[in-house]
Design brief:
By secondary structure, the protein is an alpha/beta fold. It contains 14 helices and 5 strands. α2 runs parallel beside α12 and α3 crosses α12. The chain binds adenosine monophosphate and magnesium ion.
């Protein structure tokens, strides 16, 4: 199955979240059936990130959005476990600080976008400025309604400069959200996450869903696609997100750069001498010498035949 395609919201199409089953799990009977593929994806992500660092050409921006309890933290935990921390960062966006409020809403976003060779995961993002801000009327409608075009222009600029943007909406239903809040209540290690607003925000569920429909429908382009991921099953969500990241990065057709120096010189200059000093296989010729000798041998053989 090509997941990149299946959950991709095509440019110009209006997403209908009610028609996407949050409990969808494809042909997988249960988590156990997906374990091998999950491990394979993680392994592949590790390799692809190493290549990305070496090439130092692409930047990857992963945007995660979801209703409260939708699994942003869990997804980050899973996906980032495959990455070398030196090449990636996670940035969470909370209620803007006084300094952030004194700037335009993209100011805090733009300064933390990924540099070449690096990836950044956004735990919430500039989309909050057309989600919570719209639902709670934090700015007038004529301000937030202009933001879709502004966001598109911003993301286009990033894409033109070599940043691949992949946006995930982790789609859960209202019942699953309540189950997860209940789990938090019952689990001492998760109780700190509970806030009253998690529950009061549930009253705005439909408004949020509508705001998501607009954000996703108006802001999905091939250069910055939205994916709606069925996320009631955490393992399925992790599988889909990792699969889409693998497919995205494989699409770059990355290659390790050629060495910037002559390796045979390095071998001869440092390794042959050192080996000799240590009395280790000093007489063993370097690969290039063997190859040169073999070539000479072939030429001589040909001459003799004549
Ligand atoms: P959490 O992700 O649970 O730590 O919560 C962060 C909170 O910050 C959420 O309630 C978001 O809705 C809120 N938030 C994030 N960005 C903005 C924004 N631009 N304006 C207002 N609230 C925001
Ligand atoms: Mg929260």
């Amino acid at each position: 199955m090509n997941f990149t395609d299946q959950f991709h919201i095509k440019t110009g199409s209006k997403v209908d979240l009610r028609k996407i089953d949050p409990s969808f799990q494809g042909d997988y009977e249960n988590e156990a059936a997906a374990v091998d593929e999950l491990a394979k994806n993680s392994q592949r992500l590790t390799e692809l990130q190493a290549l990305m660092t070496a090439e130092n050409k692409h930047s990857l921006l992963i945007v995660l959005q979801a209703m409260d309890g939708g699994g942003k933290d869990g997804t980050i935990n899973h996906v980032m476990a495959a990455m070398n921390p030196q090449g990636c960062s996670v940035v969470g966006f909370k209620v803007p600080t006084a300094e952030e409020m004194a700037h335009d809403y993209l100011w805090r976003i733009h300064k933390v976008t990924p540099a070449k060779g690096r990836m950044t995961v956004f735990n919430r993002s500039h989309y909050e400025d057309v989600l919570v801000v719209r639902v709670h009327k934090l700015v007038p409608v004529d301000v937030w309604s202009k933001r879709y075009n502004e966001i598109n222009a911003f993301e286009r600029g990033l894409a033109n400069s070599g940043t691949t943007i992949v946006k995930f909406f982790l789609h859960i239903d209202k019942e699953e959200q309540l189950r997860r809040f209940k789990d938090r209540l019952d689990e001492p290690a998760k109780q700190w996450k509970i806030s009253d607003s998690d529950y009061t925000e549930r009253e705005y569920w439909d408004d949020y869903q509508q705001a998501y429909v607009d954000a996703i429908s108006k802001c999905s382009f091939n250069y910055a696609p939205w994916y709606v991921i069925p996320a009631n099953h955490k393992w399925f969500r992790n599988l889909m997100v990792s699969q889409i990241l693998v497919e995205t990065m494989e699409g770059w057709k990355m290659k390790y750069p050629e060495p910037s120096i002559d390796l045979s010189v390095i071998r001869q200059k440092y390794h042959a001498e050192v080996a000799e000093e240590l009395g280790l296989a000093a007489s063993e010729p370097v690969v290039e010498e063997v190859q040169a000798k073999e070539k000479k041998g072939k030429k001589k053989g040909k001459k003799k035949k004549k």
